[in-house]
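During the practical work, I worked with a single protein chain and the tokens that describe its fold, as given directly below.
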Amino acid sequence: MLWFRRLNLATLALCFTVIVFGAYVRLSDAGLGCPDWPGCYGHVGIPDAAHEVLTAEQAYPERPVEAPKAWKEMIHRYLASTLGLLIVVLAFLSTRLKSPTRTLRVLPWVLVGLVMFQGALGMWTVTLLLKPLVVTGHLLGGLTTFSLLLWLWLSTRAPAAVDAPRPLLRLATFALVILAIQIFLGGWTSTNYAALACPDLPTCHGVMVPETDYATAYKLWHGLGINYEYGILDNRARVTIHWTHRIGAAVVTVTMLLLAVALLRQPGLWRRFGYAVLAVLALQVVIGIATVWYQLPLLVATAHNGGAALFLACLVALNQRLRSAPTI
């Protein structure tokens, strides 16, 4: 069990790295740094010799070789492939555990299926030219993988030794659902290049409530054969997406404050979770404001994705510990 836990923790750390680095790749406009999949211009690495670059650009005349972007994309693929391999190893190791719980028997194989689907989404991200629905799904799939790896690791620990009030469990579940919706809204904002659609705070183009177009903004399917790099929506639709993400942030803030207050009224473990919720909430709010205030600096925007993963980890851990404790 010890080696299983250690490998689980290492896989969890790698998954976090893949999520953050994937955000960095997307935000630095390197998502199509390699126009094919799984290689890059037909290479395992990056074409660098003059004749290799010439051949690559003849094969993909619309995508000249940009080595920095290509390397970012390929490093992300290498990391993601390693993650997939480790998850497969975890699944096989789970069959060797003595007296495993149902979670330890089933969850590793669920992760194998999920990471295979993630591989397909990674391919479609390139072949469908950064289609927002696919790219957002890829982000959500990565965060789901991260959450399940965390749940798996926590399941190898002893159950929480304190009682879990049923109202607290319900509130924590509701908070997790609200956060998941907000993460989707954030992913949709990023993949539609709407992060700067409202350049001012707290207003949007000088008004508190801008004109919106939800029918266009949240149309999931615009057809095939369209290059979605840098977005295809008009400004009004992008403003709608950005503004909705801000509304979601307000809802999340209120929900998490209510959850934190409820946790701080409890003793011991739950009180510590209350402080953790307040900490990750404050971090994410500050990073979110800085993203707009400083006009989307790459490292700050990447940190916003990392903050979302940490926020999710906090709520997943809280829900797992609540469910492992005796309910009153």
Observations:
- Residues 1-157 form one domain.
